[in-house]
Amino acid sequence: MIIVTGASKGIGKTICERLLSNNQAVIGLARDTSKLDFESYDCDVSSFKDIENTVRKIKKNSKSIQGLINAAGTASMNLALLTPSDISKKIIETNLLGTIYCCQLISPLMIREKNGVIINFSTIAVNLALKGESIYAASKAGVETFSKVLARELSSFNINVNCIAPGPIDTSLIKGVSKTEINNLISRQVIQKQFTKFDIADIVELLLNKKFKSISGEVLHIGGS
Question: Does residue 222 lie in a domain region?
């Protein structure tokens, strides 16, 4: 069983659909799961209590959890000095604390199995220090460092932890970004093309594959940076 946060749209939903098409059992977490046709729970990842209650429900069903994919995220592109405090708080709580909370509360389900994979999400904005993305990049830089340390802490339990750091993917997160800005960003990648949600699902499949259990504590920059 693989738990996927942010399962109702974007990259998270695409990952769920890919895993389900491969006959992999999935539990989706999202703020609103009413339109999902597979096992899912309404859950706000920025709330420790919400995740705790959800994990309690999952444990009641005696699920064997082999993986956690933290795809839930939010962004707001703005200059640091012009970003309202409530927006900064929302970004940090969703992206960084949400990832931390899910790992803290769900990884014990994998520890008892002495096996598992955790995949967190960062962004190319961390490496490229993109103007207008300071708060978003800061939240994801925290995710990267947290993931690298967690990989060491969980290695003795045969649990791998990695980060995927995409460039601009066509989801709601970049709906306010102009085509010119997107093209400029793509030009700074090693592979100068815009990748898709399906490309990200390919990388997730790779990291979940037991043949690649040698990969842990890494940040995979999709397209290169």
Answer: no
